[in-house]
Design a protein that fits this description.
Elements lengths: L5 E2 L1 H13 L4 H19 L6 E5 L3 H15 L4 E5 L8 H12 L3 E4 L11 E5 L11 H11 L5 E4 L21 E5 L2 E2 L13 E5 L14 E4 L1 H4 L17 E5 L6 H13 L4 E6 L4 H7 L4 E4 L3 H4 L8 E4 L7 H12 L4 E3 L2 H8 L11 E3 L3 H8 L3 H6 L1 H12 L2 E4 L4 E4 L5 E4 L11 H14 L4 H23 L6 H11 L3
Parallel strand pairs: 1-8, 2-3, 2-5, 3-4, 5-6, 6-7, 7-9, 10-19, 11-12, 11-14, 12-13, 14-15, 15-16, 16-17
Antiparallel strand pairs: 17-18, 18-19
Helix pairs in contact: 2-3, 2-4, 3-4, 7-15, 7-17, 11-12, 12-14, 15-16, 15-17, 16-17
Length: about 500
């Protein structure tokens, strides 16, 4: 069971310091980490032919030396390949190195043409949370050797080459099958590049759960089970008027399917009424697919205006496009004071600064992917991905409301200041229409009177869980956005 709160490298170091201050020595803490790592290794690979540990010169390397020593005590063949120089060892790492030698561990200095074992398990103890930037040459070569070995890999604390705070890999990084992280969950493990490298994440607290520290936690994992209670039970006398009226606005020529996906997702998540305002040519197909949706064809903002008297929440952007018609739709929607979900081209038009008169409000949820986020901030997509946490916070500060920065490890940031990280979802979601479904889900939750931040938090969890359930049934490749809709009703009725 993983803990809820996520921490930076600096916060983790503060927890380490607090643990040591509570009475455990730093070398004893290192031994606890090594013991927990070995237990994790043996839980996944119960009878390894051998264990080969790649050790750097920092404390992460010290954990690796001790793991090898403990393995030898269990009569498991273990060796260390040392990449870091002894001159850079901390006192604790020196002790760990000596303990490994004392236990008969063979320690060999790394060189680029060194043969690796043909079997067993590799352990990555090269670079820890203090490492910044791309790995230096020797470390990079060792990482490449690990990744090309074909052997299973356990990473200690985090895969070497991954930034503990951002999840970015600026150069090469270890591809692990399992990562065991110590003391605190590092927030970078769950977003940006990290999901391609961590494998299964396991957690060893090493006693940190006993610490009582000031409650300044500003980052947490989002799990569906923790948020479903936000949807209250429905009274037996319920009627559709109790659960809001959502209108989806969008679907320029050739993009009517986006409106349908958002509207259908909203309906399956429990909105009392769902309507759609779109190009007239899309109406027959929309009603043929889902007759429960009240569909109106609109050719201008003037035609849309009277329709805005009925809904309680708007979703603007699915298939909206960037035509003159699109601008009129967005202008009318944002002139209303209704709660909004803004997605896709609504965000691109917002970024242009011409259509939306008030570019900051409290009652909207913006759902950009990284490229849209970059346009909203006036930076590059690479800048956004370099520090997704900073980007989502900057978006919230500039535009208000709640921001959902989509991508692997979607982030949610609202007025509470706590960033939520959704670690669910899968690569099958890399297909058209997924964002439209998410917008419809969040809009439906807003219509059911959840506050915007809660609606976004629960919405990204439902979206990810629906995708994971669909992928489990039929595989990731070829997953369609409409496949998620089949799963949603079951998820909101646990």
């Amino acid at each position: 069971m993983l803990p809820t709160y996520l921490h930076t490298a600096e916060e983790t170091r503060a927890l380490d310091t607090a643990l040591i201050a509570s009475g455990i020595s730093s070398i004893a803490l290192m031994k606890k980490a090594a013991r927990a790592a070995l237990e994790t290794l043996l839980a996944h690979w119960p009878d390894p032919a051998s264990i080969t540990v790649f050790c750097g010169s920092g404390n992460n390397g010290g954990d690796g030396y001790l793991l090898a020593a403990l393995a030898r005590e269990k009569n498991i063949a273990a060796q260390v390949i040392a990449v870091g120089s002894v001159e850079k060892f901390s006192p604790d790492t020196l002790q760990a190195h000596a303990y490994a030698l004392q236990n008969g561990v063979t320690i060999s200095a790394w060189h680029h043409d060194m043969p690796l074992p043909s079997g067993g398990v590799l352990v990555d103890a090269l670079l820890g949370t203090g490492s910044l930037g791309a790995p230096r040459q020797a470390y990079a070569a060792a990482i490449e050797a690990i990744n090309h070995s074909g052997l299973p890999v356990l990473a200690l604390d985090l895969p070497s080459g991954i930034d503990a705070d951002t999840g970015c890999a600026e150069g090469v990084a270890v591809v692990a099958e399992v990562t065991v992280t110590f003391v605190a969950l590092k927030r970078g493990l769950f977003t940006a590049d990290a999901p391609d490298f961590t494998g299964l994440i396991e957690y060893a607290s090493l006693g940190a759960e006993s610490l009582v520290l000031p409650d300044e936690r500003d980052c947490e994992r989002l799990e569906l089970v923790d948020w479903l209670d936000a949807l209250p039970p429905r009274p037996r006398t319920a009627h559709k008027g109790l659960f809001g009226h959502l209108m989806v606005i969008g679907g320029d020529s050739g993009m009517g399917g986006a409106v349908l996906l958002a509207a259908e997702a909203a309906t399956r998540c429990g909105a009392g009424l769902t309507s759609a305002a779109t190009r007239p040519e899309h109406i027959p197909a929309l009603l043929a697919r889902r007759p429960e949706i009240m569909a109106s064809g609109v050719n201008s903002g003037q035609a849309l205006e009277p329709l805005l008297e009925r809904p309680t929440v708007l979703v603007v952007g699915p298939g909206l496009g960037r035509s003159a018609w699109s601008e009129q739709m967005l202008q009318q929607a944002t002139l209303s004071e209704l709660p909004l979900v803004m997605d896709a081209d609504a965000l691109n038009l917002l970024a242009q600064g011409r259509v939306v008169r008030e570019p900051r409000r409290d009652n909207w949820v913006l759902t950009p992917h990284p490229a849209e986020a970059a346009r909203l901030l006036g930076i590059t997509t690479a800048d956004v991905q370099q520090d997704r946490f900073a980007a989502v916070r900057a978006l919230q500060q500039r535009y208000g409301g709640v921001i959902v920065l989509k991508g692997a490890g979607s982030l949610v940031c609202g007025p509470s200041g706590v960033i939520g990280v959704c670690s669910g979802g899968n690569p099958g979601m890399a297909s058209g229409g997924m964002g439209d479904v998410l917008a419809g889900i969040i809009g439906s939750l807003l219509a059911q009177e959840l506050d915007p931040e809660t609606a976004a938090q629960l919405g990204v969890c439902l979206h990810a869980e629906a995708a994971d359930s669909a992928a489990e049934e039929q595989g990731e490749r070829g997953l369609l956005a409409s496949d998620l809709i089949v799963q949603l009703q079951g998820l909101v009725n646990p």
